Amino acid sequence: MDHLKKLENRSIYIIREAYAQFRDTALLWSTGKDSTIMVWLARKAFFGSIPFPVLFIDTGSMFNEMYEFREHYKKEWNLNLLIAKNQTAFEKDYGPENFSDKEECCATLKTKALLDIREKNNLKALIFGIRGDDPGFGDKTASIIQTNDHFRIHPMLHWTVIDTWQYIKKEKIPIVNLYFAIRGQRYNTIGCAPCCRPVSSHADTPGKIIHELQRAKNTNPGGTELREGEDAYTIQKLKSLGYM
Predict the structure, then answer these.
(1) Are 41 and 129 in contact (CB under 8 A)?
(2) Does residue 86 belong to any structural domain of this protein?
(3) Is 189 part of any domain?
(4) Residue 25 lies in a domain
(5) 97: exposed, middle or buried (C-beta count within 10 Å: 0-12, 13-18, 19+)?
(6) What's the CA gap between 169 and 32, in Å, rounded?
(7) Which helix (H) or strand (E) holds 99?
(8) 65-69, 128-132, 139-143 — which one is most confidently predicted on average?
(9) What is the C-alpha to C-alpha distance for residues 218 and 205, in angstroms, rounded to an integer?
(10) Is 191 within a domain?
(11) Span 103-117, mean pLDDT?
(12) CB-based contacts of 142, cutoff 8 Å, min separation 6
């Protein structure tokens, strides 16, 4: 059995076990590549039909390409999509420009939205597409973490960023085209448009991105990509607030 098949099998096992234990479950799907892999794995785990909702947290400031991708694959994959948003903030037309820093913005537009929809739908477990090499993520081994009022499921802690791109290439998984270079720039991570910055790159296929990452790893062994343009400190703060 090859490396990617072992990763897939372990993740599918964790997803199935989580659903067996917690029927009131949802999978967080940002339309980023890692959470899209999670949707792909969940579809495989349940033979093409995910038996629980897929949850999209809408800050109102995502890239248009993300909304288009969400709507297209919601239909194609027959997803039960829940959209979480801080309704009060939306009614006041709040955006990133209304907050003093990224932490306050994320707490208001992401964390509050997630907590509200979790309570409204009585969700007992949330499935995240967090990798073990994600910066700022503490426990790299526990795939199921209990908090005061819910469980957090992490089926991809044994994956690396290079694993994800190799799997995308092998499985031909569709992803948002912002990840691929256009006119010498592409995004390593996507999310709220004001918080994301493109990187210089000519990698316009998964294979070229793998080569680019392997080359970067050789020159900077401790380096890894950041999620949604946020540093390790911000990710830890979001985790402590209940977003991760």
Answers:
(1) no
(2) yes
(3) no
(4) yes
(5) exposed
(6) 15
(7) none
(8) 65-69
(9) 20
(10) no
(11) 82
(12) 154, 157
